[in-house]
Amino acid sequence: MATDFEAYTAAGVLQARLVARDRLGDLLETMDSLAVERAALQPLDGSASESQARAVVEIDDLLLVVAPPDTPTPVHAAWHELVLEVGPYHVVAEMPTLPGFDPGRSLTRPGGPFVLLGRVAISLVGAPALGEVEHDFAWVNRYAIETYEADIELGAYFPGARETIRMGGASA
Q1: What is the pTM of this model?
Q2: Which CATH number is 2-66 given?
């Protein structure tokens, strides 16, 4: 079964067909690389798209991955607005947490490299005039995030990222 695959990398936007039986979210958490077919990379510099019949994509090279429509999402979540910088991308999105979640007291941390986001708007850092692309859901590589703004403390979710401003509060 082939699945459409769209991912944002440091080099550009990759669109391909992923041939796998498992759900994309599960593959992102368990595999080191993904085999794709009919891969087309649209470079960020606006140059011509690069195509390959088959390619192997390293999971670590994926900054954001668009979630397919059948992706399970939290039902009773509290959604927190985030502003992220991940590689060359500026991302405005919402992150779900379970009701009553307190990041300062929580022992639960994401288990893998990706965190699911909702209402995702992606643009290029420093080039908002080029416009933004919106997706219902996407996973973000939590280790690639450089800065974040949120209404809750998310340092454990985004190790190595710098919190710039606490939304609705003081700067960190």
Answers
A1: 0.89
A2: 2.30.30.100
